[in-house]
Every structure is written in structure tokens, then in C-alpha cells.
Specification:
This protein has eight helices and eleven strands. With 258 residues, the protein is of the alpha/beta class. The chain has a single domain, classed as P-loop containing nucleotide triphosphate hydrolases (Rossmann fold), CATH 3.40.50. The strands form three sheets. Strands 7-8-6-10-11 form a five-stranded parallel sheet, sandwiched between helices. A four-stranded antiparallel sheet has the order 2-3-5-4, covered by helices on one side. Strands 1-9 form a two-stranded antiparallel ribbon. A hairpin with a 2-residue loop joins strand 4 and strand 5. Helix 4 crosses helix 7. The structure holds adenosine-5'-triphosphate and the ligand Cc1cn([C@H]2C[C@H](O)[C@@H](COP(=O)(O)O)O2)c(=O)[nH]c1=O. Adenosine-5'-triphosphate (ATP) binds next to helix 1, helix 6 and helix 8.
Length: 258
């Protein structure tokens, strides 16, 4: 898992000395975490799973590629979970329903932002971190990069506000790798429309998604070590091959760099 140098009081990842700590949550898996106190678990980084997120605008093929990624990891014999944001736990899925539903009351951008991070706090601490601590890889459909793209670039929330909440909720936890499925907005929207009824986000104008796409591409340029751009406008088989090859290469990396 990628880590910055500012661990919060309740959660820290110490890569250099090879241990991993997180807030409580149940842990399962091949290595039993060492309990330091009631709030913290530690395990060797040898067992730590990798945190891989799939990002992109609507309909580019994230869910499709998560299925493909799951099959790839199965072939490689790697233990993993597949999850998504907003959502991933029963409570966070309830928040997702609130966020995606179209209603009469317009949602203020700060309400949207706080609900995203409320769902994320539950998901991260109750599901993602315990899975990583047990050595499983976490394949996640969207994470905080989506917040920078949608609430930041799309809604116009200043980046510093998002960064504040990111630090509060995640401390130094960041995805190890972001697989950015990139395609023209119109391509993704045409695919999403074919799938059926559109949710509150999917009803946004093309200009909104253009800002979102640009923001993802800017983040990919700013963080080339973390981002992997895949051309999602290609035929499905080619996109799947690229994603499988990428995951196979990541699996071959030593844990500290992978
Ligand atoms: N490379 C591709 N070429 C053509 N169709 C594709 C491709 N990838 C996915 N699709 C199709 O496009 C539709 C949307 O794909 P998918 O649901 O995986 O996108 P998504 O990014 O998860 O969408 P959302 O952002 O709404 O969650 C599906 O019907 C899927 O079969
Ligand atoms: C995590 C996250 C998500 N969103 C938006 C992006 C999508 O429109 C929906 C989720 O729907 P999907 O079918 O699963 O893609 O939520 C967001 O605006 N900000 C976020 O942080």
C-alpha cells in the first residue's frame, strides 16, 4: 500500500520497518495480526495485500474489468476481495443508495462530499484494511481519486477540502495502484445508456464528465508511479488483455515496490 509520511493517531502504515497497522476491524487470513492495543493490529508487510483501484468516467468498463481482474488473480493463485465505492459494506451501501438516487431535493456539494467520505470511512476500516492485513489483495471499483475527479473537478469543491477529509479518514492509506480506464466521455455514456436507467451522477451533462475525465488524466500525469492508463475505447478483448498483463506484472513486483 502506498503511504505518505504523516500517519494519523489511529492508523499507520510503516513500510520501512515492514509492519502495517490499522484501526480494529475483524481480520481473517493466513497470518494472525499481533494485537498492540485495542485499536491497532500489526502484521508483517510480507503478508500485506495490495490495494488496486479501478477508475474512470461512467460506462468505461470498470465492473467488466474487475471481473476480468478477479479471474486473472485466481489464475495467479492470489487471494483477493472485490469491492466498490461508494459502498462495500451494508452501511456504506445504504449511503450509496442515498447518493445515487435522484430526488426532488438538490444535493449540496458538501453533503455529497461528506457522504462519500462517511461511506469510505466505514468501508476502509471495516473491510479494506482488514482484508489487506490478512494478506488479501483488494480490487476496488473507485476510491478517493474519484472524489478528486467528481467532487473536485466536477462539482468544484476545492482540492484542499478533499485533502483534509482524505487525511482524516485515511491517514496515510492510498491505493498502491490506480488502473485508469480511459475513453472519450461519449463512448462510456453510450455504453452506460445501453445498460438501462441512469442514476443521479449519470444524468449529469457531458461537460461535467469531460471535467472528470480531464482531472483523472491530470492526476495520472502527476502520479505516474501510481497510475496505469488503459485505453478503454478498444474492443473488450484487448482491454482485458492489457489489464491482465498489468496485474500479472504487478504481482511479480516485490511487495515494497508492488
Ligand atoms: N471495451 C469494451 N467495448 C465495448 N463494450 C464494453 C467494453 N467494456 C465494457 N463494455 C460494456 O459497456 C457496458 C458498461 O460496462 P461496465 O458496467 O463494466 O462499466 P463501468 O465503468 O463499470 O460503468 P459505471 O461507471 O456506470 O459503473 C457494459 O454493457 C459492458 O459490457
Ligand atoms: C467513489 C466515488 C464515486 N462517485 C460517483 C461516480 C459514479 O457516478 C457513482 C458510482 O456509481 P458507479 O456505477 O459505481 O460508477 O458515484 C463520486 O462522485 N465520488 C466518489 O468518491
Amino acid at each position: 500500500m502506498a503511504a505518505t509520511n504523516s500517519p494519523g493517531p489511529w492508523l499507520s502504515i510503516r513500510k520501512r520497518c515492514g509492519s502495517f497497522s490499522s484501526t480494529g476491524g475483524k481480520t481473517t487470513g493466513r497470518l494472525r495480526p499481533r494485537i498492540r492495543n485495542r485499536q491497532t493490529v500489526e502484521i508483517s508487510s510480507v503478508a500485506r495485500g495490495r490495494f488496486i483501484t479501478f477508475e474512470g468516467t461512467e460506462g468505461v468498463g470498470k465492473s467488466t474489468q474487475l471481473d476480468n481482474a478477479a479471474k486473472t488473480l485466481e489464475r495467479l493463485g492470489i487471494g483477493f476481495i472485490v469491492t466498490r465505492e461508494p459502498g462495500g459494506t451494508p452501511l456504506a451501501e445504504q449511503i450509496r443508495e442515498l447518493l445515487l438516487a435522484s430526488g426532488d431535493e438538490s444535493v449540496h456539494e458538501l453533503t455529497e462530499l461528506l457522504l462519500m467520505f462517511a461511506a469510505r470511512a466505514q468501508h476502509l476500516h471495516r473491510k479494506i484494511l482488514p482484508a489487506l492485513a490478512s494478506g488479501q489483495w483488494v480490487l476496488c471499483d473507485r476510491f478517493t481519486d474519484a472524489t478528486y475527479a467528481y467532487q473536485g473537478a466536477g462539482r468544484g469543491v476545492p482540492e484542499e477540502r478533499i485533502a483534509l477529509l482524505e487525511t482524516l479518514v485515511q491517514a496515510d492509506v492510498r491505493p498502491d495502484h490506480v488502473i485508469l480506464l480511459d475513453a472519450p466521455v461519449a463512448t462510456g455514456m453510450a455504453r452506460a445508456r445501453k445498460r438501462g436507467e441512469l442514476d443521479r451522477f449519470e444524468l449529469e451533462a457531458q461537460a461535467f464528465f469531460q471535467k472528470v475525465r480531464n482531472a483523472y488524466l491530470e492526476r495520472a500525469t502527476a502520479m505516474p508511479e501510481r497510475y496505469h492508463i488503459v485505453n478503454a475505447s478498444l474492443p473488450l478483448e484487448q482491454v482485458s488483455e492489457s489489464v491482465s498483463a498489468l496485474l500479472t506484472a504487478l504481482a511479480a513486483l516485490p511487495v515494497e515496490s508492488g
